[in-house]
Design goal:
The complex is a heterodimer. Chain A is mainly α. Chain B has two domains: about 180 residues, Periplasmic binding protein-like II (D-Maltodextrin-Binding Protein, domain 2), CATH 3.40.190.10; about 150 residues, Periplasmic binding protein-like II (D-Maltodextrin-Binding Protein, domain 2), CATH 3.40.190. By secondary structure, chain B is of the alpha/beta class. Chain B is built from 14 helices and ten strands. Classes of the chains: A mainly alpha, B alpha/beta. Chains A and B meet through α2, α3, α11, α16 and α17 of A and α1, β2, α3, α8 and α14 of B.
């Protein structure tokens, strides 16, 4: 401990965090490379000749539909709830992110069974509401499931950035709409982009939903080359190609953004003063903010609730509930630390730290099952290494402990924490550091008294995202969990994959039930911070 | 910086040590614990585990995951694998686990007598537990049943725009076509798949239950599904009206109805091979075999077992395709290629 403080006085190097995050996130992906380059290429030729075009078309189409959909649902709701005061705002602030707690495949099953011929929505609308299927069906499900990524990050940015510049623009005669598009939106762009990146990677990596809704994407192709062709090598290779494409897309975005570094300067930002709305405008605002909640949470949730109420649960979900709580909260904690460290590394470190953090993002774009394959391959390799070092006495690496599982979660989701942490730190200008340091504050004091309070909502958001992600994770949980260890997502999947939506309803609803207090807690902590900052 | 990296290294090592600490309890099975790696997750299996625990006092602990991930995990764990018994839902998966040499042979006269020769591996690497049949479900008021003969009926031009099937990546479809390749040869199977895809009422969507519902709702007239999804709806108070007007057609023509099997084998590195043998033998006794029929609507592999299941009784007898189940695994890749060429999504 003494050593740490001593180090702190000399200045802190967050680079090890960046490197740790990068190692955890990239090693499983790197483990796919030897797998990917081994094996023959016969299968690739077949794919090229037959379904590759369809896969790529569907992936690209889905990416466009989902991105547009989540932006349309996420950005306006974030803006309205942070900028305006209207009845029900507090409730909506908490309710809007909850759709994320519903696994998208459960949402997909629920919507599809409601809208298919014979389902309740089908009968209610006399068949005019289209069946949730195909490209647009899957895009719809992803939009209503993933918009909270954008909502959460954009809201966090709007809460802090908007006021001064937005009001200045208004004073200079800009209309609210002009001021939004020319001032507030560009300021929130890093946050919105971080959210969009998460949405895009989730969309590209999803298997369960698109397979069920009949939209074979590239990821379906990846999983088929493994499941049907028994060729995990080809699956690894295709996953790496998908990853490369994703990296190019987001690398391009970063390059494009490079010239437009924005950090609000000049004085402390006042906490958001919300403009009160009433009458017609309040009504319209409530409507806009309710739509995503209705489609993403209330309608499928009600359907599941009806099913759950009329179904006798086969096994008590208590064990699965605690299993989920354990792994999700542990992972959220680890990811917040890791994400914050990595974000610091990217902020203060040199090119090496930066590259490491960029690399850490990659794990997210790999389909879950293939990512699990990478973790298994890595664990096997380290097992061999340990065996080589110490012979039969070596401890077992993969053997069903929680550690392997927690490692797999970080490998997959640490990227979800880095983004929000980074966009939270963007707001803290170098001049703040310089001012604090010149007034004699130690680096730790700068972090504790300036960075942490300012970045708090970002860190909380990061932890929340990882919590929710881990709560829903399937392939790695299934294969790496300790014996008899259950989570809600696993039991929901068991029933859903056996086409017993009614039995899957209870564990799925419990996921939302867990999400609710967590959301409220985070939202309360964030608003408390806001008041504290205001009093600062 | 240097401190950081060394610290990181130490942390990683201590994490690994932690891992070994927490796993040693589960990694080395004790005398009275049996570890089952299963890709089945049905109520009948939980009943089987409970019954085995009760009968023997041995504690059953499980890992349930999709078959392909199970295979990868078993491969990675190697000689340290805690698994005693491996259970999968499909003959193709059994075949793949066999190719990866994950099973240890188990030869007992008792099992050989109980399980028909077609339902087990010739060298005792695995034994079937329960069977499922791929059948046609149709609406008798819209389809002339005399036009139905076997699987080839789905390719009949008379049914253009009337057929519902789930997507081709699904293992049930792959196993069926793997069997059809063996039955008809690749060329005819290819033509069949192409013609069936041409008869689709809609793009493949949802699972087998959704195909049945689509026939009930009039979206299509005939669907290809596993029998137990239909039986489950028949036996369910809430859903039996849904299928009241539908019929199951047994595609007996040619070689007979395609049947797939769930099976179990002793893991090659089983810490407790003796318990594993006991477990598999126990699974073939009357009560567990009845569980498969009564709780999951599957057909028990042990033919002498009597069970009570109203839906299975109504569905009646059928002729089983006598194909060697290993073919389902061998032809799997070719089946998916054939689907891809047929444009069956």
């Amino acid at each position: 401990m003494g050593q740490v403080i001593d180090r702190a006085r000399r200045g802190i190097s967050p680079t090890p965090f960046g490197v740790a995050a990068a190692l955890i996130c990239t090693l499983p992906v790197l483990a796919l490379i030897p797998l990917g380059v081994s094996g023959g290429g016969a299968h690739m030729g077949h794919l090229w000749d037959t379904q590759l075009g369809t896969y790529v078309r569907n992936s690209a189409g889905l990416l466009i539909i989902t991105t547009l959909g989540t932006l349309l649902l996420g950005v306006p709701t974030a803006w309205l709830t942070s900028r305006y005061a209207f009845p029900g705002r507090r409730l909506l602030v908490v309710a809007l992110p909850l759709s994320l707690a519903m696994p998208s495949y459960v949402s997909g099953y629920a919507w599809m069974s409601m809208t298919a011929a014979g389902g309740p929505v089908y009968s209610l609308t006399a068949g005019y509401f289209p069946t949730t299927s195909g490209l647009f069906g899957a895009g719809f499900i992803f939009a209503i499931s993933f918009y909270p990524y954008i909502y959460l990050l954009a809201r966090q940015a709007f809460e802090y950035s908007g006021t001064n510049s937005f009001e200045a623009a208004r004073t200079l005669g800009a209309s609210p709409v002009t001021a939004f598009f020319t001032v507030s939106l560009p300021l929130a762009r890093p946050a919105i982009m971080a959210g969009t990146a998460l949405v895009a990677m989730e969309t590209l990596a999803d298997y369960g939903t698109v397979d069920f809704l009949g939209t074979p994407t590239f990821t379906v192709g990846i999983l088929r080359s493994w499941i049907s062709f028994g060729d995990p090598q080809a699956a690894a290779r295709l996953a790496l190609i998908l990853l490369l494409v994703t990296l190019v897309i987001f690398g391009g975005e970063r390059l494009a953004r490079r010239g437009a570094q924005v950090a609000e300067s000049g004085g402390r930002n006042k906490p958001q003063h919300r403009v009160p709305l009433s009458g017609r405008w309040a009504g319209i605002t409530i409507l806009i903010c309710s739509i995503p909640v209705v489609f993403g949470l209330i309608v499928p949730g009600t359907h599941l609730l009806t099913l759950a109420l009329e179904t006798q649960p086969v096994r008590s979900p208590a064990a699965a509930f605690w299993g989920t709580m354990t792994v999700a909260s542990l992972s959220a904690l680890i990811a917040a630390l890791l994400g914050l460290g990595a974000a610091y590394a990217a902020r203060t470190g040199g090119w090496f730290a930066n590259a490491a953090v960029r690399a850490a993002h990659t794990g997210y774009a790999v389909p879950g099952a293939v990512a699990a394959l990478g973790v298994i391959a890595l664990l096997a390799a380290s097992q061999n290494f340990l065996d080589m070092l110490s012979g039969a006495a070596a401890p077992m690496v993969a053997g069903g402990g929680l550690v392997a599982l927690l490692f797999a979660y970080q490998a997959r989701f640490a990227a979800a924490a880095i983004g929000p942490c980074e966009s939270a730190l963007v707001r803290i200008t170098p001049s703040m550091d310089q001012a604090a340091r010149s007034l004699g504050a130690s680096p730790w004091a700068v972090i504790g008294r300036i960075h942490f309070p300012l970045a708090f909502s970002g860190i909380a958001t990061a932890a929340l995202l990882v919590f929710v992600e881990v709560m829903k994770e399937l392939p790695a949980t299934m294969i790496l969990r300790p014996l008899d260890f259950e989570t809600l997502a696993v039991s929901a999947h068991h029933y859903a994959s056996d086409e017993r939506l009614a039995q899957a309803a209870l564990p799925s609803l419990l996921l939302v039930v867990i999400g609710l207090p967590i959301m409220m807690l985070v939202s309360w902590l964030v608003s408390r911070r806001e008041t504290e900052n205001a009093a600062l | 910086m240097r401190f950081g990296i060394i610290g990181l290294f130490v942390a990683t090592l201590s994490l690994a040590a932690c891992g070994s600490g927490s796993s040693s309890g589960t990694g080395a099975s004790e005398g009275d614990m049996l570890v089952v790696f299963s890709s089945r997750h049905y109520d009948s299996d939980y009943a089987l585990y409970d019954a085995f625990e009760e009968a023997t006092g041995v504690e059953v602990r499980t890992i349930e995951a999709d078959g392909d991930l199970l295979v990868e995990r078993l491969k990675a764990d190697g000689a340290r694998s805690p698994a005693d018994v491996i259970v999968t839902v499909d003959a193709g998966r059994l075949w793949r686990a066999e190719q990866e040499e994950l099973f240890a042979p188990l030869v007992t006269d008792e099992l050989d007598a109980a399980v028909p020769a077609g339902m087990r591996h010739p060298d005792g690497l695995w034994y079937g537990l329960a069977k499922r049949a791929r059948v046609l479900v149709y609406a008798p008021d819209r389809i002339d049943a005399s036009k139905l003969t076997g699987y080839e009926s789905l390719a009949d031009p008379a049914f253009k725009g009337k057929v519902c099937v789930r997507s081709s990546g699904n293992i049930y479809n792959i196993s069926l076509v793997a069997a059809l390749i063996d039955r008809w040869g690749a060329e005819k199977a290819q033509k069949w798949a192409t013609d069936v895809a041409g008869n689709f009422a809609r793009d493949p969507l949802g699972g087998d239950t959704d195909q049945i519902k689509a026939v009930a709702a009039g979206e299509c007239d005939v669907a290809l599904v596993n029998h137990y999804y239909f039986a489950r709806l028949m036996n369910d108070e809430k859903n039996k009206n849904l299928v009241a007007d539908l019929e199951v057609f047994w595609p007996n023509a040619d070689a007979g109805v395609h049947v797939n099997v769930s099976g179990a084998g002793v893991a090659k590195h089983a810490p407790n091979p003796e318990l594993a043998r006991q477990f598999i033998e126990f699974a073939m006794t009357e009560q567990p075999q009845r569980f498969f029929a009564e709780l999951t609507n599957e057909y028990p592999v042990v033919e002498s077992v009597a069970y009570k299941n109203a839906a299975l009784e109504t569905l009646g007898e059928f002729t089983e395709d006598p194909i060697s189940l290993a073919k389902l695994g061998e032809n799997q890749a070719e089946a998916q290629q054939l689907f891809d060429r047929a444009g069956w999504p």
